[in-house]
Write a structure and sequence with these properties.
Length: 487
């Protein structure tokens, strides 16, 4: 009986253990297959790793070649061309105006008073419609500013429109600053090389710049705006639509070289040399060069700048020097108010000549003072005022250097081309009021009223509508509307 129970127990145990033993064999077989597969995967992974290493080596070699060629930067995060474009600054504006001369002069009839370029700003005689719409400027500005990280840079400004035409005629005698036209007057026999231009494209600035590693002094060479004056040639960057009388009796552009530096404490200086005043094609009229200088201080809310230009500006005359000392005070006493005060004193020598100087041989000189300011009534609305006074001690100075000789005789003689005696003084006054409103963050509308007066020792107290028009006016009023977009 016991034997039967033992047999039954063994049979039951076998039935239980046999499947487990079979399952163990299957597990071992599966484990073996998994190991084989793992080994295969490891082989494939190693092959892939080897291939990646080869690819990385090739990529590193290609990156080095691209860096050497200057196509990528050192980090390889972007192309060198993209990195260069990231350092550029692009801007400019579109400036359109409507002008109305209350004196009802002919188109472009800005008045002159013994050579003073007055009237509606840069719109010189015969160049701009003073009774209609004008595209004053389309200005494009491209710059790569210099910095400790980028020590090499440049600036290029190109302007289209009436402003370009006027700037192209600076050297043709459209404004004070150069002797113009043709004449035969003793020591000054020459034919002026410039003629009036209708070209409405002008390069205002184009210079290369380098920030030196010693002292971080900026060095520029090329064509650049002058250091002198509070106003600039671009109307949207001024308080008023038109430019001042003082602006027209200062240079606007120079072709030369300039070194400048501004310190953390606000002190600033500049020293340069140029061919002369407003030379569009860069030509010099003599062997001498004109010196430019600046010294001043610019704080957060106040500043003062002293500027100087000095050099020979007459054709083939090395000894006759022209100079202007320009002093500008700026103030921003409260957030809503900004203003400036400008004083200028200028002179020109005519050695060994009685044509320009007269019998007493005194050197002609002039001076003037201007104040202007803008008050922000709201974030969008503002009002600006400008008032100035200008005194020409010897009107012959401006007549001879601005309008040249009589077109009928070709000679200067001992009188100005407009008929005033050389030694008579004249003065001019101007008041301008401007209202501006920002339609958007970049689009601004401005309306302006301007009035000018003149008097002289001859007692006529008259303006000249043009250099040869004897229809005289004692004053002139101008209305202007402007819409400009800055980008």
């Amino acid at each position: 009986m016991r034997s039967s129970w033992k047999t039954l127990a063994a049979l039951a145990a076998g039935l239980i253990v046999a499947p487990q033993l079979a399952a163990a064999d299957d597990v071992q077989e599966q484990l073996k297959k998994m190991q084989e597969r793992m080994s295969q995967l490891e082989d494939r992974l190693q092959a892939t790793t080897d291939q990646l290493e080869v690819t990385e080596e090739r990529a590193a070699e290609q990156q080095a070649l691209l860096q050497k060629a200057g196509v990528t930067n050192a980090q390889g995060s972007q192309s060198g061309l993209d990195a260069f474009f990231d350092t550029l600054e692009f801007g400019g504006y579109v400036d359109a105006t409507y002008n109305y001369n209350i004196n009802h002069g002919d188109a472009g009839s800005d008045f002159n008073t013994t050579g003073l370029s007055l009237g509606n700003g840069l719109q010189g005689p015969g160049l701009t419609d003073s009774q209609g719409f004008n595209l004053q400027a389309l200005k494009l500005e491209l710059q790569r500013p210099v910095s400790v990280e980028n020590r090499g840079g440049f600036r290029a400004d190109i302007v289209f429109g009436e402003q370009a035409r006027n700037l192209n005629n600076l050297a043709a005698g459209a404004y004070p600053g150069v002797i113009s036209t043709q004449f035969d007057a003793g020591d000054y026999q020459y034919e002026f090389p410039y003629t009036k231009s209708d070209n409405q494209v002008h390069v205002s600035q184009a210079y290369a710049e380098y920030l030196t590693p010693w002292g971080d002094i900026s060095f520029k060479m090329g064509k650049m705006y002058t250091l002198l004056g509070a106003e600039v040639v671009d109307s949207p960057y001024n308080y008023n639509v038109t430019r001042s009388i003082l602006f027209h009796n200062l240079p606007i552009e120079h072709l030369g070289a300039l070194a400048e530096k501004k310190y953390d404490n606000g002190i600033t200086w500049a020293l340069g040399v140029a061919n002369g005043w407003d030379r569009d094609n860069g030509a010099d009229f003599n062997k001498s060069k004109t010196l430019l200088g600046r010294f001043g201080w610019l704080g957060d809310n106040y500043g003062v700048l002293g500027n100087l230009i000095y050099g020979a500006e007459q054709v083939d005359q090395e000894d006759n020097k022209r100079g202007v000392f320009d002093l500008v005070f700026t103030a921003n006493p409260i957030e809503a108010l900004a203003m400036y005060l400008q004083f200028d004193f200028g002179w020109e020598e005519f050695k060994n000549s009685t044509v320009q100087l007269g019998a007493d041989q005194k050197t002609p000189f002039w001076w003037g003072v201007a104040w202007a300011g803008r008050y922000a009534i709201t974030d969008r609305l503002g009002v600006a005022l400008r008032a100035e006074w200008f005194k020409d001690d010897r009107s012959g100075y401006f007549c001879s250097r601005t309008t040249g000789a009589s077109p009928s005789t070709g000679e200067l003689g001992n009188t100005c081309s407009v008929g005033l005696p050389v030694n008579l003084a004249s003065s001019a006054y101007e008041v301008t009021a401007t209202l501006d409103y920002a339609l958007t963050s970049q689009l601004t509308a401005r309306a302006e009223f301007r009035s000018d007066w003149v008097n002289n020792q001859q007692g006529t107290d008259r303006f000249f509508r043009s250099a040869w028009d004897r229809n005289l006016q004692s004053n002139q009023q101008l209305l202007a509307a402007q819409l400009y977009y800055r980008f």
